[in-house]
Amino acid sequence: MKKSIDDASKPPANHFEDAVSELEKIVATMESGSLPLEDSLRQFQRGTELLRQCRDTLENAEQRIRVLQDGVLQELNKAQDKA
User: What's the top EC group for this one (predicted)?
Assistant: First the structure.
């Protein structure tokens, strides 16, 4: 008897790291090819939700950095050259 995976209805992960970890597990499970089609679709849906959450978190962090740097976001290479 196969257990149905219904992770797509899970709430958002509490932390960025939790979302990334869950996303990595989903990718590994899907790459294994061991899931039936319906479960793969649910996992894919959950993965896209987690990816969106991670992207939003990173965009928010980038915005906070811009504010902290008075709106000037420098490229890493340029910042290192000046140091």
Answer: hydrolase
**DSSP 3-state of 83:** coil
Tokens of 49: 């939700």
Residue with tokens 């990718």: 27
pLDDT at 71: 65
Report the predicted TM-score, pTM, of the whole model to 2 decimal places. 0.67
Over residues 4-15, the mean pLDDT reads 65
Structure tokens at 12: 């958002």
Q: Kindly state the tokens that stand for 21.
A: 């970890």
CA distances from 40 to 4, 17, 27, 53, 80 (A): 10, 23, 10, 20, 44
DSSP state of 5: P
